[in-house]
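Usage

Read records sequentially. Each one opens with the input sequence:
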Amino acid sequence: MLTTNDLMTIDPETVPHDAPLRKVVTAMNRANIRQVLVVDGKKLVGIVTDRDVRLVVNSPLTTEEPLDRLELLNDFTAQDCMTPNPRCVSPETPIHKVAELLSMYKFGALPVVKNEELVGIITVTDLLNQMALIPEKEE
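and closes with the structure output:
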């Protein structure tokens, strides 16, 4: 049986809770990912997704000037827009359970935690890549 440990990305992209949102966006762009995990040491404290960033930058409370919106990336931190204490899985979680959680909650990823320490992340893309390896049955 496949488990999270078989498909997860180890050493995921992380930022400290006080990182400016600009650093969060830079990390996402550099790694070509849609979420960054927020940590305090090795302890997971939250997750920031590309949607979270868009909600801050495109808020109707902000000015309509695009350059002013970009300046918001310096005014907010990861903690300001993260989802605190996100739902997690363990390395031993069966892949079918991971798929169920991702589908049920419409998440793009789940942090992987063991003994209260962040050890990885598993994404929808990880599951799709695994599915792409399964050959079609010949009839």
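Summary fields computed downstream for this record:
- Residues 4-132 form a domain with the CBS-domain fold (CATH 3.10.580.10).
- The chain has seven helices and seven strands.
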